[in-house]
Write a structure and sequence with these properties.
mainly alpha, 13 helices, disordered C terminus
Length: about 375
């Protein structure tokens, strides 16, 4: 008989225990908080849409106040109180604007009248495919496209159809004048009450976070104020250069085109390119030599400006890269048109200041109130023991 032990039987497989079920409990409070956030965002977007015109006036007044505030602070550092300093700067600004208006209004009106009188002839040449802009009709059939668009929109006839444009122009003029008056008063009150509003806003922040909020506010003010002031100066110089150049070359409507240049040049990067192209096309209507001269000199001016003045503005005031500037302009233009393009760079600079301060706070955290109290308690205890 074989007394060898029998081989051990293989172990029976262990029964796998069922995976525990996960139960997600949604509290009514969480649901209400989520609904409240969604409703709050929707209400904020609706408010922005409804108050777009008012917010536009406020934004323009804010930019003007930021541009004038350095002059107010200049007089304040020399012992003048805030009120008289604001009055002096505001009066000087009004006088300068009035002088510029007196100097430019008469030539502007004259050239606009000449343009209106010459417009039928220009349109007739364009319709026939003749003149400097005749290629637009010959190649792209611009006149037909405009007629189709006009017919698709429809329009009234008779007296009502003739009266509608006049009423629209009158309404536009009244709205523009009213907007200018509102912007003037908003700018004045922002200059007068700006420091008080800043102090009241800081009181709403906990005392432990006030130094950080003050640093962020100071950084945003320096970046936005520096950009607005520098950009206005650069745009003014570009407008003056364009006006003088067009007058020397003999291009008609030089002063209106110079004012147009001043406004469009406020848009960084895209504005100079657009101005160069449009002024060259207008100068081309007087002859190919004039068009070439305007294009070459405007391009040369923007090259010099782009390597001297603009980098000085964006580098010192905002410290933004060219990619960040272009992305901000595109997003701002898509959201709010020309005003969005103007406000995009200061907003991007402000965001950069906030992000930089947050990163510095994370890398070098300052001791909180509890740590400071504990440290002070330790100092007092050691002093008492000695």
């Amino acid at each position: 008989m074989n007394d060898a032990p029998a081989p051990p039987s293989p172990p029976s497989p262990a029964r796998s225990s069922p995976a525990p079920e996960r139960v997600v409990a949604l509290r009514p409070r969480s649901i209400f908080v989520g609904l409240g956030i969604v409703l709050g965002v929707a209400a904020a977007l609706g408010f922005l849409v409804l108050a777009q015109s008012a917010l536009t006036l406020i934004a323009i007044a804010l930019f003007l106040a930021l541009a004038l505030n350095p002059a107010v602070e200049f007089f304040g550092r020399r012992g003048l109180r805030r009120g008289p300093a604001v009055a002096a700067v505001y009066a000087a600004t009004v006088i300068i604007v009035a002088v510029l208006a007196v100097v430019f209004i008469t030539p502007l009106v004259t050239e606009v009248n000449h343009f209106v009188k010459a417009l039928p002839g220009l349109v007739g040449d364009l319709t026939k495919g003749q003149g400097p802009l005749g290629f637009l009709e010959r190649k792209y059939h611009v006149v037909e496209e405009v007629r189709k668009a006009t017919m698709s929109q429809g329009g009234g006839g008779g007296l009502s159809g003739a009266a509608t444009p006049a009423l629209g122009v009158a309404k536009g003029v009244a709205t523009g004048v009213g907007g200018l008056v509102i912007i003037a008063f908003l700018t004045l009150f922002m200059l007068l009450e700006g420091p008080e509003w800043r102090a009241h806003s800081l009181r709403l922040i906990p005392e432990a976070n006030r130094p950080r909020a003050e640093r962020i506010g100071a950084g945003v003010y320096r970046s936005v104020g520096g950009f607005v002031t520098g950009n206005l100066l650069a745009s003014f110089l570009a407008g003056v250069f364009a006006t003088v150049l067009l007058l020397i070359v003999g291009v008609p409507y030089a002063i209106p085109l110079g004012l147009f240049t001043l406004v469009i040049e406020l848009i960084p990067y895209l504005g100079p390119a657009l101005v160069t192209a449009l002024l060259s096309l207008v100068a081309l209507s007087t002859g190919p030599i004039a068009g070439g001269v305007v294009f070459a000199l405007m391009a040369l001016y923007h090259v010099v400006e782009g390597h001297s003045l603009r980098p000085l503005i964006y580098g010192r005031a905002l410290k933004l890269s060219a990619l960040a500037v272009l992305v901000a302009i595109l997003v701002g233009t898509e959201v709010a048109g020309i005003l969005g393009a103007l406000a995009a760079i200061p907003v991007a600079g402000s965001i950069q200041v906030i992000v930089s301060e947050s990163l510095d706070q994370r890398e070098n955290p300052s001791p909180g109130p509890a740590a400071g109290a504990a440290e002070a308690h330790g100092i007092h205890a050691s002093t008492g023991s000695e």
